[in-house]
Request: fold
Amino acid sequence: MQSFLDIFDIYFLEAVINGILLGGVLALLALGLNLIFGVIDVTWICYAELVMIGMYGMYYLVQYFGLSYWVAAPLVIMLVALLGAALHYLVIAPLLTSPPINQLLATGGVLFILQSFATVAFGIDFKNLGIRLPVLSLGDMNFSYARLLSFAAALLGMIGVYLFLTRTFTGTAIRAIAQDRQIMPLMGVDAKRIYLVTSAIGGGLAGLAACLLVLQYDVHPFVGLSFGPITFLICVLGGLGNFIGGFIASFLFAEIISLGGLFSDLEWGYVLAFAFFIVMMFIRPAGLLARRS
Amino acid sequence: MNRRIMAWIVALAVLVAVPFVHSDPYHLHILVLILIWSFAYTSWSIMGRFGLVSLGHGGFMGTGAYVTALLWNEFGLSPWIGIPLSMLAAGVLALVVAYPCFRFRITGHYFVLVTLALAGIVLQVITATRDYTGGSLGYTPQRAPSGKGLLALQFDDKTTWYLIALAVWLAGIVIWHRIDRSMGRHAMEAISEDEDAAAAAGVNVTAEKLKITLISALMTALAGALYCQYQMFISPDTVSGIAVSLQMVFAAIVGGVYVALGPTVGAIITILLAEVLRISFGANAVGWDNLVYGVLLVLFIIFLPKGILGSVIDWIKSPRKPPRAHEQETVRVARR
Reply:
């Protein structure tokens, strides 16, 4: 009995730590969505699909063109950033004055486009990068370097965005526009340019997430569906547009998924997370950090 | 008014007569699919037209299909009982998710994202319980022994299915019409314009929204169950999940959300489009139909947000009747 408990504790601790590591990547995704929502007031339903395209980008650059991971990653981040800017320019910009729900549904159309484009262009079979990173053994626990690297890179990415938003002129303009959409153009800020830059940053974050996720998961056209819904739940739970709320919610959800996966299949972790979400809606409907009015 | 009723009766007589005049199985198959999906799209538009944009209807449809099939295979429970039970399950699911949403005023973006997650979660549950549901490989209801077709709601005959689908579709249109003429519609319109004002005017906002959501979810579950009984094969991708939800939204918007036959027009267009693509591209068609769907959806939302039928009717009626305020936009959502 004693030994059983020992093993259980080790697994439990391992799951907790893996949850934290997973939370890093989820927080990165949530940050991208929150940034775009906070500034442009649209939700990109197709956000996880941008990540999927980025993962394919990594796969092809590394497998077909023989680039090293470290060369391919910045290229992919740039590619997805461009994709994000294009998405804004082609789809969101013409709809800026129409009801928000139309913008949201239009990005739903883009989700269809990206998924089926990937199906047509890359086929439906699972592909993986073929990079096997070593496993770190700590006592009796095992952690893959892929996850540690993802966590570190996600944190660095978030710090980078934070510094950009607080230390540069463009970043300040982005935060200002998020606070008051009407007045900023009068202050000499080019709203169109800010929107484009924000979309590119949002895309870049998706690209970074793609570079990290491709180390851990196989890529296929529908891979976005396995973490897209969770990202949306995180954003709603944290409060759309609320960066810190999104950050905390990411780790909460990651822990639930990870611990749920410990006791049963990974899918049940997702179901538990959803149940938790419904309960939380009763308690804090406007987001984790919302002040009660 | 009488001329309108006459037109409906004539049109229905023609529709009923179709399988007896022209019994090509392939054409009938397409017609049955169009009718079943039209019913599903109509169910979506019942709440979609009031600004309750749900991307979770794939979840309700999946619940309808899987619960019916599982009850039949595991317990031998006839779909005649299984379908109401599956609708009940979908209704409970709808209430569990919708009640906190409405009670705590989760609207607009938030509501869409929550329902989107619901569709994703139902898909995950179906995949997770793969020991029973076959996971992503799909699921087949057991064939009934011969002579028990009626009990098991399984017919080889396409004409029977055509008539069943026609009746259900008609019921859907009638429900749409009844809601269109009810007090509930005025309440819902007021809510979609301004929830606070509606509440101040004595509308029970939460109850009205729940009612419309429940009707919509029950109908969608029925559509899923029928689809399962007709196709005798369901997989998570074809009856549940986000793709199916988006497909509903897409078809309803292309056809027009504010007119009774709009979703039907949307179903005709999308299904014919998919068939034409499938025939012209052959086995390479995987993905192409959705690619065209996606491009069309984006173009429609940008250029023709009222849908094909809605725009045509507007164009015919334009000199006589200006569009009502709430129709100018697909959906009104209060900005924060």
